[in-house]
Design goal:
single chain; 246 residues; mainly alpha; three-stranded antiparallel sheet; 8 helices; 4% strand
Length: 246
């Protein structure tokens, strides 16, 4: 197997005439194993995952239950409690089964957008392949949680409600609504990268920092929306007992 590594284009600034767009994220291969390669999108996704793992490990290796709690543990506890609260408000009494997935999605998207403050970092969320993979995760989680909560019959029943005539429309709605999440996230993230690139050609140094700050705010909102929609879709079918309680 022929192995090649080329990181010469990894440090290229995305806005310096490098063809800002989908091709600049998915076609630049950093590692080539012969039969397959690792492009910038995948490699930067590994960086995001590694950073989340490192922060989580640092926060949980010495968990304190007393008065003296580390700042990083406090921040993560606030994040977890916030997502639990959102889960319960969104999906009712059985919410605790969903928030882990939503929290993971939020952390990945938020961290990817946070790293855009590094000038050469191409956020993986600005690639359609990444956002569609996240949407596919939600798409697979919907029947998993639905069948887990209400069984196969309960899951299939939702497609013929309120009348069986709506079966084709309900199937199309489930497929399209989930993957529309990926398209929305991709459009917002890529447009931010491209807009920063255009402005930086006229106002170097100042424009990128300003747009990245605005992009972080927008990215945080997008991460929240994506996680919230994931909660809504995965908890759409609940057990009969949960429905009677709500």
């Amino acid at each position: 197997m022929n192995f090649k590594a080329d990181f010469s284009h990894w440090l290229d600034l995305p806005w310096q005439n490098k063809g800002i767009g989908l091709e600049s994220f998915d076609t630049i291969e950093l590692l080539d194993f012969g039969s397959f390669g690792i492009n910038v999108t995948i490699f930067n996704s590994w960086i995001v995952i590694a950073l989340i793992t490192l922060v989580s490990w640092l926060a949980t290796r010495r968990i304190s239950h007393g008065k003296e709690v580390s700042k990083i543990q406090t921040v993560l506890e606030i994040l977890v409690l916030w997502m639990q609260k959102e889960s319960k408000e969104t999906s009712g009494s059985s919410a605790n089964g969903y928030f882990q997935m939503a929290l993971g999605l939020f952390c990945f998207i938020f961290t990817a957008n946070l790293l855009t403050f590094i000038p050469w970092f191409r956020p993986p969320t600005a690639s359609l392949s990444t956002t569609m993979a996240l949407a596919l995760t939600v798409f697979v989680a919907i029947p998993y949680f639905s069948i887990k909560n209400a069984g196969v019959k309960g899951y299939l029943k939702k497609f013929i409600e309120p009348v069986p005539l709506l079966l084709p429309m309900n199937i199309f709605s489930e497929v399209f609504s989930v993957f529309a999440m990926g398209l929305r996230l991709f459009g917002n993230m890529l447009s931010g990268v491209m807009f920063a690139g255009i402005l930086s050609a006229f106002i170097p140094f100042v424009a990128p920092l300003t747009m990245q700050t605005l992009g972080l705010l927008t990215g945080s909102i997008q991460a929240y929306i994506f996680a919230l929609l994931a909660l809504v879709y995965t908890s759409s079918v609940k057990a009969q007992d949960d429905e009677n309680l709500t």
